[in-house]
């Protein structure tokens, strides 16, 4: 360890250290959720009815099913809840899907609530991934987003700001969420 490193470590407050450790632990949890648990979701997806319909409570769009959950949870807990239902936090593959899930939330609540989607950059800052493993090619970010404000924003929320765009936000925030699952 160099003197510069020791000096920097000594000047770090306990609060800063706790905050940094919390962020590291949270990133590890997100990494685990988005890598190893895909197999669990795939196994549950194989158990689904192959008739082309969605389970009760889910809404079909194309070859996918969506469900809005109006319980405020942090991103990792919301992803876990979606996995338990046989899906993932919703990936957004098109403008049609983006508008559809926003309408799904508005219909259920009567308002344009902010909610979690499955996007995150917890593995590597600036490299956005979907928790379901699908290709990330999304372009509905709000102006100046993603910003990684204070180095703590690694998860995607929808309906941000006056224009209701997408934003990166602290994964520990609690919000309702939308899950999605592919028809098999």
From TrEMBL:
PROSITE patterns in alphabetical order: C_TYPE_LECTIN_2
SMART domains (alphabetical): CLECT
InterPro entries named in the record: C-type_lectin-like, C-type_lectin-like/link_sf, C-type_lectin/snaclec_domain, CTDL_fold
Residue span(s) of domain C-type lectin: 61-180
Domain of life per record: Eukaryota
Pfam families reported for this sequence: Lectin_C (PF00059)
Name of protein: C-type lectin domain-containing protein
Species name: Pagothenia borchgrevinki
